[in-house]
């Protein structure tokens, strides 16, 4: 892609991220609702494809694995497995709007965990932005016509485990001096092994409704598309960090260099604005593709949550700029 100017490569990279993030939600929802594909089994195959992609990356020299003890990674692998499983179960049981807004609760929960468990302090203005986020999620859930008690349980567990995972992954990277790909290289197979053990107790494996059941060609195509989108999204921006690798396409190392180039040019505000755009498009897609009802009160809840997210982003940006200014002024 050397023929493309830098701005064009940046736009193309962001569009790939946008398309993968949105499509994975719609494809998985379609597989769960329209085809009845087993939830845990889908997650299992995603983990397997992810690990295969990482193996190819390290084999081609994209990153160097670091020797880690299983005990060091086990809690992280367990939480990684838990957050993916519970968020997928939330997507299966809730409307896309409720699923998407529930994910926004990760920010307040992370702030709470870091405050209580790690003694980290946050400015009052940051704490105040969490109020409209929480209120908006509550309004949407309360007025959701398709409210599901089980879906609410899954969404709550998903938020809690995701928040713990995001706090732990940052701490582990610092503690073990590894990057996200080196850490995921160990997490993925361990999480895969956990799912292999528990799936037979919860889902059929063979026959009707099982992963090795008689699926139609249409189902297989959608399933394969889901794998591509999930792998692209995971490697593209793994937990908000720039991991520029796409394991499912040709010329892997060349693409890795391309993604790294993009990472140097993507600002925090650009990435977050794209995140807000994805948020809105996903909500709209849920209404159009799956006929999810949306009441006026739910719309107010969505606007309230979006306002809180935008305010949070603005204040975090101000903090970053202030920190940079202090570093520049320091002799």
TrEMBL record:
Stretches that traverse the bilayer: 12-32, 44-63, 70-89, 101-119, 149-171, 183-202
Domain of life per record: Eukaryota
InterPro entries according to UniProt: Sugar_P_trans_dom, TPT_transporter
Topology class, membrane: Multi-pass membrane protein
Domain Sugar phosphate transporter: 19-312
Keywords in alphabetical order: Membrane, Transmembrane, Transmembrane helix
Taxonomic lineage of the native organism: Eukaryota, Metazoa, Chordata, Craniata, Vertebrata
GO CC field: membrane
The name this protein goes by in its record: Sugar phosphate transporter domain-containing protein
Protein localization: Membrane
